[in-house]
Amino acid sequence: MIWSWTCLSLAIGAQTVGIDLLVTTFRIMAGLGPLLTAIVMLRAASSDERASYVMRLKTLKGIGPVWLLVIVATAPGLTLLAISLDLSIGGCGGMIEKAASEYLMSPWGFIGFIMLVLLFGPMPEELGWRGYGVWKAQEHHPPISTGVIIGFAWMLWHVPLFFIDGTYQEGLGLGSLLFYDYFVMMFSQSVIMVWIYNNTAGSIPAAIIFHFMVNFTGELLFLSITGDVLLTCLWSAMALIVAVRYGCGNIRSRSSGMKVNPY
User: Where are the domains of the chain?
Assistant: First the structure.
């Protein structure tokens, strides 16, 4: 958090004097914060803990067909449902983002679009937030509490982006309806991601793919304000169902044998 906020503060400072290259550089450095935190903490950890992290970084065996569907289809599914609900009440629904449509014009452009979405957010963030943060938090807290704690930290981590021109967050508007909508959605997603984490043997790739699908869908489809609010309601409803339906407890993962706190 300190690293990222420092870098983003420097980016804001560079923005005030019009040095765009430094703004971009500091934003990239800030995005590496969760990954760098995980690396520093793992260097101070025991060899067994480092081995556990590496195992979860490589493991895909905990992601069965059902969970793969949950990971890949949840974000686009909820988004399309929000668009349908918006249309059903007379709204304008959604459309392909202009920038995304340009990338879709060629195979190489599409590949570049995918890599851009993957590398700037999901990969460096999830190596830290879910890969390390959720893992360690659940040593002391049940799943729901972990989702709340990590979700709150994740929300705070994004706040400085609202002050940097050209970011998605800045476009929402500080203090606007979409400002609050954004954080409620993020908080709900944090709870859901703990649920996925605990049912895929703590797989870090599962968290990366889920985060990627959230960002990819958001970059691809533009929703009206009503659609955005409906989407947040759907994410919140899903998080509530997960929390109420599964509760919390301790079992051993069938896939890895490691002790986790699943929903």
Answer: 60-260
